[in-house]
Amino acid sequence: MSDADTPLVLIVDDEPAQVALLSYNLKAAGFRIATAKDGEEAVLAVAELGPDVVLLDWMLPRLSGLEACRQIRATREGREASIIMVSARSEEGDRVRGLDTGADDYIIKPYSVAELIARVRANLRRLRPTSTGQVLEFNDIRLEPDSYRVTRGSESLHLGPTEFRLLAAFMERPGKVWTREALLDRVWGRDIYIDTRTVDVHVGRLRKTLCAAGGEDPIRTVRGAGYSLAG
């Protein structure tokens, strides 16, 4: 699994011991980790790194977790992430406030690390199902991430690693219009600098393979925007 395929969790907490504990356990569970120590740093980190999951503590210096959540949700990268609010506030009103602000989940302190990791995985199953081994199906196309197998109808398709990751991204979000920049981040990773025209080349290869045995092209070109999977 490449770095681009390994889910990235951003831990936002101003307590070093808590950050160290969560980092150790999440790394052991197979995640990449990034950290931020306050709300302002969290907003910048989301824009820069595009994490899959944000563990966001409510009580933070400089900018509260609640306000950080609002600002994160206003960014393209933040709208793509799953935010889990972490707080000692256990009243129903606080939970509702956190979720209404934009959090996808809310976990109350104290919590077990095992439960928190289970919540991270549950959110990832909704956000990036292939990262947890979930089989995807779209019309007559079936993608099995664990066995690295793709079929269309009764035909097995042989995809290169890049085309496989492209198809996985499309199938995780049918109908979503992916810009070339977003596909570069999702498939190649943010640390690799590649011309956006490279995306067009690999999408062309993917289309050719998907249509080799007949059938309509399921990938739609959205003029001036990017690509979308639309049957």
TrEMBL record:
- Give residue ranges for domain Response regulatory: 8-124
GO MF annotations, alphabetized = phosphorelay response regulator activity; transcription cis-regulatory region binding
Q: Where is the OmpR/PhoB-type domain?
A: 133-231
Q: Which InterPro entries match?
A: CheY-like_superfamily (IPR011006), OmpR/PhoB-type_DNA-bd (IPR001867), Sig_transdc_resp-reg_C-effctor (IPR016032), Sig_transdc_resp-reg_PhoB (IPR011879), Sig_transdc_resp-reg_receiver (IPR001789), WalR-like (IPR039420), WH-like_DNA-bd_sf (IPR036388)
Q: What is this protein called?
A: Phosphate regulon transcriptional regulatory protein PhoB
Which species does this protein come from? Roseinatronobacter thiooxidans
Where in the cell? Cytoplasm
Which Gene Ontology terms describe the biological processes this protein takes part in? phosphate ion transport; regulation of DNA-templated transcription
Q: What residue ranges does this record give for the DNA-binding region?
A: 133-231
